[in-house]
Design brief:
binds magnesium ion; 14 helices; Rossmann fold; 391 residues; Helicase, Ruva Protein, domain 3; six-stranded parallel sheet; binds adenosine-5'-triphosphate; Arc Repressor Mutant, subunit A; alpha/beta
């Protein structure tokens, strides 16, 4: 039996599609490579759960490390934890692993920074500033910390290093006070056009990550917020076929059509359906094929997983949210409907429903489709809702 190459629970690697998003991140990276200074803003990928944000951020990071020589700490924002302590720990581990800073050159006394003698000797110390009450962080400390560590990355090996790419996943989970400190520190660094270090920040989070932009006006304005959406059909097909092809297994066009259509281009479903199709087909050797019949059985087998996901979303809705969801399901199906039509169907005004809409947008159950229209974020969700409520 061959190993199942589909990854419903892990990042996509290699990443199919997403060329425009990768190119956008590359602009910031190239600018820093050319100027040797900090990028003027961050690049932030946002989108609903399971749409491929982490996979994309990981792909940006892989490329920056392998092709551009960046050192790249990765932080997934801890829920309820101390953001800056986690940041300090991951930067430390990454720089030590990359031989940028020797283990014994870190001291844990202050979240200040001391630069030692010699090209590769940097002593960065990590903890709350003496003067700061426990648990609070100063913009100046964070700024210093990032400056010194980014500079150390480029000084690496007698100046052969290029810079630091800081990746922050689940950025929406940052407390607003922490976000304000981080963005202000980054803004101070970016505004120092002569003396700023080669630092690029790339982040990912749920759609509400955008509301943090106001915390630091200029840096926020210069930050590129890029939505990650469902995969276009050709990329969905490629993701399905090329993943199997890696293991020498083919997929018939009929099988590909069925799975593509059922996934709606939602990356989690692409991997989940692909995984089930592989399990059903159970290819023994290169040259075996996934057929239409396998695809049919896979859709059946994936049903309970998909239903669980839908159930969790629908079950978490308040009564008025449920009504809203049902009204939207009737009007939009897998397409879109206008806010005012949904309100009218509920016998309310659009204005009265603004809180409900905000909640559902925040929970990423629905998404803004532009021009006053809304849609569900998960393909097949409308049908599920109608089956549940109308039998
Ligand atoms: N471009 C792609 N092509 C095919 N599959 C993909 C692609 N991007 C992501 N996936 C798959 O989709 C699933 C979700 O991806 P990922 O974890 O990156 O999403 P996410 O947006 O970070 O989700 P969450 O919000 O839950 O953290 C994974 O199984 C991943 O392998
Ligand atoms: Mg993720």
């Amino acid at each position: 039996m061959l190993h199942n190459p589909y990854r419903p629970r892990a990042s996509a690697d290699p990443l199919i599609g997403r060329q425009a998003q990768l190119a956008l991140a590359q602009q910031f990276i190239s600018q820093t490579l050319a100027t040797r200074h900090a990028a003027p803003g961050a690049v932030v990928f946002y989108g609903v759960r399971g749409i491929g944000k982490t996979s994309l951020l990981r792909a940006v990071r892989r490329r920056a490390i392998s092709e551009d020589g960046f050192v790249s700490p990765w932080l997934s924002v801890p829920k309820g934890g101390d953001f800056f302590a986690a940041l300090a720990a991951t930067v430390r581990r990454t720089l030590v692993d990359a031989d940028v800073i020797a283990e014994n050159h870190w001291s844990l006394e202050r979240f200040g920074v001391e630069v030692g003698a010699g090209p590769v000797k940097v002593t960065a110390s990590v903890k709350a500033a003496d003067a700061a009450p426990a648990g609070t962080w100063h913009v100046g400390n964070v700024e210093n910390f990032l400056r010194t560590t980014a500079r150390a990355c480029s000084d690496q090996g007698g100046g052969r290093g290029t810079g630091m790419l800081l990746c922050i996943d689940e950025m929406h989970a940052m407390k607003s006070a922490d976000l304000a400190v981080l963005l202000n520190a980054l803004q101070n660094i970016a505004d120092d056009t002569e003396g700023s270090p080669p630092l690029v920040v790339a982040a990912a989070g749920l759609p509400r990550v955008r509301s943090g932009a106001t915390a630091a006006a200029t840096f926020g304005e210069r930050t590129a917020y890029e939505e990650v959406k469902a995969l276009p059909e050709p990329d969905t097909r490629r993701a399905l076929v090329e993943t199997a092809a890696e293991a020498g297994v083919t997929m018939t066009p009929d099988a590909m059509d069925l799975l593509t259509q059922r996934s709606g281009g939602y990356p989690f479903f692409v991997q989940l359906l692909g995984w089930h199709a592989w399990q059903v087909a159970d290819p023994a050797q290169a040259g075996d094929a996934i057929t239409e019949e396998h695809a049919r059985q896979a859709i059946e087998a994936a049903g309970p997983n998909i239903a669980d996901l839908f159930e969790a979303r629908f079950g978490a809705a308040s009564p008025v949210e449920s009504d809203f969801i049902v009204a939207l399901a009737r009007l939009a199906g897998d397409g879109t409907a206008s806010r005012s039509d949904v309100a009218e169907a509920m016998g309310r005004t659009s204005r009265e429903l603004s809180m409900v809409r905000r909640e559902l947008l925040d929970k990423a159950v629905v998404a803004d489709a532009g021009r006053g229209r809304l849609r569900f974020t998960l393909p097949g969700f409308a049908q599920f809702v109608l089956n549940e409520t109308e039998g």
